[in-house]
Amino acid sequence: MKKTIGIIIMGSILTMANAQTNPLLKEWTGIYGGVPAFDTYQVSDFKPAFDVAIQERIQGLDAIANNAAKPTFENTIVALEKVGDKLKRISVVYGIYGSNITSPEFNKVQSEMEPVLADLSSQYYQNEKLFRRVETIYKSAEMKKLTPEQQRLVWVYYKNFVKQGAQLSASDKQKVKEINARLSVLFTQFSDNLLADENDQYVALTKESDFAGLPDGIVRAAKAEAKERNLTVLGCIGNTRSFVDPFLTFSPNRELREKVFEMFVKRGDNNDAHDTKKILTEILKLRAEKAKIMGFPTFAHWNLTDRMAKTPENTMKLMESVWKPAIVQVQKDVAEMQKIVDAEGGKFKIEPWDYRYYAEKVRKSKYDLDQNEIKEYLQLDKLREGMFWVAGQLFGLEFKPVANIPVFNPDVKVWEVTYKATGQKVGLWYFDPYARKGKRSGAWMNAYRNQHKIDGNVLTIVSNNSNFIKGVEGEPVLISWDDANTLFHEFGHALHGLCSNVTYPSLSGTAVARDYVEFPSQVLERWLSTPEVLNKFALHYKTNQPIPQSLVEKIEKAATFNEGFATVETISSSLVDMKLHLAGSKTIDPTKFEKDFSEEYKMPKEIVLRHRIPQFGHIFSSDGYAAGYYSYLWADVISADATEAFLEAKGGFYDKNVAKKLYDHVFSVGNTIDQAEGYRAFRGKDPKSDALMKARGFKE
Question: 455-470: b or e for each residue (b if 16 or more CB lie within 10 Å)?
Fold first, then answer.
């Protein structure tokens, strides 16, 4: 890999003369401290821009490492915070392309650049001189004289160097370097294969009766999808959750439900050119080898060293404590569904492709609650305004749409964010709501630029990206209650970035422990169902009348309905993730592993993993959530406990004092303090799982 870097640098010398004309190398300009110039970028710009930016970063790091002066916080830690700005900017745009606007041309760039970027990261963490300077500061008398935030920053740098192998022997460093390079290639291959299955596969709807029971929005989207694919059929169901879940919920056609279900759960598992099983097996092997070199029994043990959970055992204990009551609830729910099947004369047992359909029938019969009726009040644009209103009530933020900001797709809109009381600018919020070809599935938040004050007050830029099905021009987009929850969830991540008020970029916003980062997002979900939001923003798409109180009461009564399914579906994936990474160097057969897991944990046959192993992008498209998918449950314990703080307060969900404490100790502090200490400062105690069990309607 050293040779590859050498070639890149040679290339950068040749292209240096053209550096000024490459738009990716230019500073972000304009108001708000500059914004990405999406209207000027081309895929062909990435490689030459990376060539120049990588060389600049290497030179900057060399200057810090070889500084003859005694290591100090300013000449080492602050210098590291500032080095390589060009590369940071290019990497942001590169990541946006990789998630939102992939193409065969861009995939080629990824396949070439990922090993180079992995090698650059390895070189950084294995730079002996750099590490010794950081270590010197960490162990020096100067450390005690630094501010608490500065001490935290030094600790973060030291911890990251050590975790990534800075103390290894030269030979072991080389092994880790080679593993990281190979993993970067495999991550890209896994993501490309999964995206190919999502883009290419569909189930055709060939007759009018195939649309029976489907909401109007799905009918229109299915027809539009067929037209976009140039198919000579009436419509088709695309291979994304935004298509699949509503089809499985509302279609009475059992045969078609099974087809759609099988298509979705077999992503990456069709024994064809896009199969992911060999790729992920190699990923697991390499992670296990890396952990062993680092001195840990498994990758899970290594990766949890800087998480709140600390050890895999702690995560397993929590997951298994919630698993058992969830299984009991699923058994009760399935029994109710089976009664409906039997009463209708069905000669079959509930299967996974039946679960959502019959769960919806139980919801209607038990609570007189129809999801389609709720959906008529859930307009995407109105709910977005509702999120803004909540942000204003809790944190004093105000959102105003702005024009003339370059975007990477016409559907992307931008808002200026300020503090309403002072008019002080906070940053920008980009919203990319709709599914399209080349965009990965799911919903997420990105930080284009982190807030910091290392060189004046730098405004943050964040985005939320979703995959809602785009409606007909001029008509509102209606979304499900679950999708509305996801919308609020991802906005919680955005607020975590927007509310950040720290000095150093490495500690900004969402740069917290992985099993804590989901807490701010999950706690914000709770505001969707508050009467204030529903009365103001859950407005009928035809009459503009607020959702009636009778329907709100039905929603409240059914609040914990189907929590057994949701919990089993998600925690099963969390358990599989952890057990895969606790398996050490054992060769994994994904199919057998899933089967053995199902038997060991008595997985209900009516439910499959939310993310089957061959399509588990959270853990195989990067190391991000590897041995960390449990984070959603871990953070939900914290968010359920935090919700209790509001419920106990005089002002309820909009209590100003509790909201200020949430801002002061959670949303604004980033990683400037230990997250456990920050939560105790907010709540006055450590969180317990009691509130979670209560919130999910489980008996302990």
Answer: eeebbbbbbbbbbbbb
Q: Which residue has 């046959």 as its token pair?
A: 605
In one-letter notation, the amino acid at residue 140 is: S
If one counts every other C-beta atom within 10 angstroms of the C-beta of residue 334, the result is: 23
Instruction: Tell me the fold of 380-515.
Output: Collagenase (Catalytic Domain) (3.40.390)
**Do 432 and 100 meet the contact criterion of CB atoms below 8 Å apart?**
yes
H or E element at residue 4: helix 2-15
Q: What is the mean pLDDT of each successive set of 10 residues along the chain, which is 700 residues long?
A: 33 51 95 96 97 97 97 98 97 96 94 95 96 98 96 98 96 96 96 94 97 93 94 96 95 98 98 98 98 97 94 95 94 96 96 97 93 94 98 98 96 98 97 93 95 95 95 88 96 98 98 95 96 96 94 90 94 98 95 97 97 97 94 94 96 97 98 97 92 80
pTM of the predicted structure, to 2 decimals: 0.91
Q: Where are the domains of the chain?
A: 2-125+127-167, 201-265, 279-355+362-369+560-627, 380-515
DSSP assignment of 422-437 equals T--EEEEEEEEEE--T
Catalytic machinery residues: 490
**Which strands, in side-by-side order, build the sheet including 397-402?**
397-402, 413-419, 425-434, 460-468, 444-449
In the three-class reduction of DSSP (H, G, I as helix; E, B as strand; rest coil), residue 442 is classed as: coil
HSE toward the beta carbon, residue 121, CA cutoff 13 A? 20
* Residue 367 contacts residue 554 (beta carbons within 8 Å): yes
Per DSSP, the chain holds a count of helices (H) and strands (E) of 29, 7
Strand-pair category, 460-468 with 425-434: parallel
551: nearest Cα among 542, 539, 560, 567: 539
Q: CB-based contacts of 176: which residues, under 8 Å, 6+ apart?
A: 122, 126, 164, 165, 168, 290, 293, 294
Reading the block at residue 670, the tokens are 């980033």
Instruction: Give φ, ψ of 653 to 5 degrees.
Output: -65, -15
Helical residues (DSSP H) of 126-201, grouped into ranges:
128-138, 142-145, 148-163, 170-200
DSSP string, 623-683: STTTTTTTHHHHHHHHHHHHHHHHHHSTTGGG-HHHHHHHIIIIITTTTSS-HHHHHHHHH
d(CA 436, CA 225): 10
Q: Is the dihedral of CA 374, 380, 385, 386 positive or negative?
A: positive
Domain 2-125+127-167 has CATH 3.50.50.60: no
**pLDDT for res 471:** 81
**Homologous superfamily of 279-355+362-369+560-627 in CATH?**
Neurolysin, domain 3 (1.10.1370.10)
Take residue 141 and report the two structure tokens written for it. 């008398």
Q: Do domains 2-125+127-167 and 279-355+362-369+560-627 have the same CATH topology?
A: yes
User: Is the Cβ–Cβ distance between 189 and 112 less than 8 Å?
Assistant: no
Alpha carbons 386 and 392: distance in angstroms, whole number: 10
What does the pLDDT read at residue 474? 85
